[in-house]
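User: I'm curious whether this sequence folds into something compact or stays loose and floppy. Could you predict its structure so I can see for myself?
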Amino acid sequence: MNKKKHEKTEGYNFCRYFTPASLTASQTPKEKKKRANGRLMPPLTYQRLLDEQTRKIQLEGLNEQTAANRATALRNFLRANKMRLDDVVGDEMRLKHPEATERLVHMLEAEGRSPRSISNTRAAFRPWRDAVIEHDTAQALAAEKGTPFVQALISVMADSPEPPRVSRRLPHLREWSHEQIHQVFPGSPRARCTHGL
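Assistant: Here's the prediction. I'll summarize afterward.
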């Protein structure tokens, strides 16, 4: 047998056991940020939202009629706001959502829809807004930054001066009253009943 001498290597130490670190190298915040920045997600479009709903029908058992009602509500929303399925989801589903929804309601009223039909359309449209919020939250967590709402709130707060601080302790009301306090003993003529209540 051929015996080879172990050459001394630099950088490696022999040990009998492995001591795991608390975090692997890929889990450190620096590495997470690198991965999030390096991984470009395609923009969220209305077509992607519809495709996600189709996936939910197949995998999660979403009712097909419910899905069809939601898709119709989304298409009406897009028509009311003069948009198409391949458009990127923008502020009409985020900060300017109330105005965009009002345009949908006005369009449906102009078409002669009943108030119940309009209410049903609004209810069927609500999951799309929730899906956008869910997407924004996932994106913000992956990139370790705030959601669009939080970013808008921070910008508004940065523009305005800080409001004066108000003491959050309740004042003692006894010191503010000017009435005279007389103690009523149980069983006295001014008590309502014999036990003083």
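Summary: DSSP finds six helices and no strands in the chain. The chain has a mean pLDDT of 76.
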